[in-house]
C-alpha cells in the first residue's frame, strides 16, 4: 500500500497536464501530485491540434505553433467574410509541443511524481480515494490520494436529446510557391458538398506562406470511411484553392461528440472528471482547450485554498440551452448549417461572436446575436426540444 498523496491526476492530455502544471507551479506549498499517464498504445491519444482564442499573452504561448488576428468565412457561393479579431488572438497548439513545453516545468518540481501505467480501478475509501494502476512492467500499484481527477475518455456518452459528431481529417501540407496568408485563418469554408444532415466545411490554419493545416470537417450523425475525407481534401486543395501538387507532411484525425447531454463532474466524494470527460467541450462548436484552462484554474484555486475542489459547471445554463436548440435544429434539417454560420459571421462583429462562442457575453449581447439568426426555425426547435426523449448517444 502506497503513501497517501494529495492529488492523483489520471491522464496526461490537455486537462491532466494543465491541472498538474497549475498545482506544481502555484505560489506557496504545492500539493503532492501523482500524474498517471497511459502507456504507449491504444489508450494514449494520438497527436492532435487544439485551437482557441484569448486576449493578450497567454500562459502557454511558448507552445503556440501559430496565431492570427483575422478570421475568414466563406459561404457555399464563395461570398467572403473577412474580419479582424479585435483584442483577441486565435491560437493553435499542437499536443506534442504542449507536452514538450510543460515537461521541464513539471520536472522542476519535486512535488510531482509521474507514473506510466493502465488504471484498473478507482475506488473511494474513508480518507479519499484509491487508484489501482498496472505499470508497464506488470506490477499492480495502489495509489491512495485525498483527491482524484480523472481525464480519461468516457466509455460511452450520457444519453442526450441530440448528439451529432464533429469528425475530421487534416493534412499538414507544404506547397512549392506561396499559397497561404499567414495572418488570417479560414475558419469555415463551405465551398464543399454538404451532407443531408448537419454541415461540412474545410478550414485552413496557415503556419507560413507555404505551409498550413488543411482540415475537412463534418457535423453529422456518423463518421465517414477514411478515403472520403482524403477525397474531399484533394478536391478542396486542387479544385477550390487551385493548388497544384502539395506535399502532405503529417496527418491528424478525430471525432468530437457534440451533445446536449449532461456530464457528471463529481463521481464520488473525492473523485472528479475533468476535461472532455467532465463536459468541457462546447456542444455547438467542439472547442475544448479554453474551457479546460478555466476549469483547471478553478480547481487549482479551490484546492490550494483548502476548499472542496469540485470542478465548476464548464458552461453556463444559458449557453447549454442555446446550444441544445441549435443542435436539434441542425439534426432535424430545419436549420441550414452553412447558411446559419455564414449569416452569423457576416452580421455580428467578430470579437463579440468569438466571446459568445466562449460563453463570455452578457444577456443583451446574446439577444442581439439571436436576432441575427434564423429566428423562426430556432423558436420551433426550442418548442420541440423538451418533448424529445433522452436517447443513447451514437458510437463514434
From TrEMBL:
Q: Please identify the protein, giving its name as recorded.
A: Lycopene cyclase family protein
Taxonomic superkingdom: Bacteria
Pfam families (alphabetical): Lycopene_cycl
Q: Which InterPro entries match?
A: FAD/NAD-bd_sf
Amino acid at each position: 500500500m502506497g503513501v497517501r498523496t494529495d492529488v492523483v491526476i489520471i491522464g496526461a492530455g490537455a486537462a491532466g497536464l494543465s491541472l498538474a502544471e497549475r498545482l506544481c507551479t502555484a505560489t506557496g506549498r504545492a500539493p503532492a501530485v501523482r500524474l498517471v499517464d497511459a502507456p504507449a498504445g491504444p489508450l494514449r491519444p494520438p497527436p492532435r491540434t487544439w485551437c482557441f482564442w484569448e486576449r493578450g499573452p497567454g500562459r502557454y504561448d511558448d507552445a503556440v505553433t501559430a496565431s492570427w488576428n483575422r478570421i475568414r468565412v466563406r459561404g457555399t457561393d464563395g461570398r467572403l467574410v473577412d474580419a479582424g479579431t479585435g483584442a483577441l488572438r486565435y491560437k493553435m497548439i499542437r499536443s506534442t509541443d504542449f507536452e514538450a513545453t510543460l515537461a521541464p516545468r513539471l520536472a522542476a518540481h519535486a512535488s510531482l511524481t509521474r507514473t506510466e501505467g493502465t488504471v484498473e480501478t478507482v475506488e473511494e475509501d474513508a480518507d479519499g480515494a484509491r487508484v489501482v494502476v498496472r505499470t508497464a512492467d506488470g506490477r499492480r500499484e495502489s495509489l491512495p490520494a485525498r483527491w482524484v481527477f480523472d481525464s480519461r475518455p468516457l466509455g460511452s456518452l450520457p444519453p442526450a436529446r441530440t448528439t451529432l459528431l464533429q469528425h475530421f481529417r487534416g493534412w499538414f501540407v507544404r506547397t512549392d510557391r506561396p499559397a497561404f496568408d499567414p495572418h488570417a485563418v479560414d475558419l469555415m469554408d463551405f465551398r464543399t458538398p454538404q451532407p443531408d444532415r448537419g454541415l461540412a466545411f474545410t478550414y485552413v490554419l496557415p503556419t507560413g506562406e507555404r505551409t498550413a493545416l488543411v482540415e475537412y470537417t463534418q457535423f453529422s450523425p456518423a463518421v465517414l470511411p477514411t478515403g472520403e475525407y482524403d477525397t474531399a481534401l484533394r478536391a478542396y486543395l486542387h479544385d477550390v484553392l487551385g493548388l497544384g501538387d502539395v506535399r502532405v507532411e503529417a496527418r491528424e484525425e478525430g471525432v468530437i461528440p457534440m451533445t446536449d447531454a449532461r456530464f457528471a463532474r463529481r463521481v464520488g466524494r473525492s473523485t472528479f472528471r475533468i476535461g472532455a470527460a467532465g463536459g468541457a467541450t462546447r456542444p455547438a462548436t467542439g472547442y475544448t482547450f479554453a474551457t479546460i484552462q478555466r476549469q483547471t484554474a478553478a480547481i487549482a484555486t479551490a484546492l490550494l485554498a483548502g476548499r472542496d475542489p469540485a470542478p465548476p459547471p464548464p458552461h453556463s445554463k444559458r449557453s447549454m440551452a442555446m446550444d441544445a436548440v441549435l443542435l436539434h435544429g441542425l439534426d432535424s434539417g430545419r436549420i441550414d448549417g452553412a447558411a446559419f454560420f455564414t449569416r452569423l459571421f457576416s452580421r455580428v462583429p467578430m470579437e463579440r461572436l468569438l466571446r459568445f462562442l466562449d460563453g463570455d457575453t452578457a444577456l443583451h449581447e446574446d439577444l442581439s446575436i439571436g436576432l441575427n439568426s434564423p429566428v423562426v426555425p430556432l423558436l420551433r426547435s426550442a418548442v420541440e426540444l423538451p418533448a424529445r426523449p433522452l436517447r443513447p448517444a451514437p458510437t463514434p
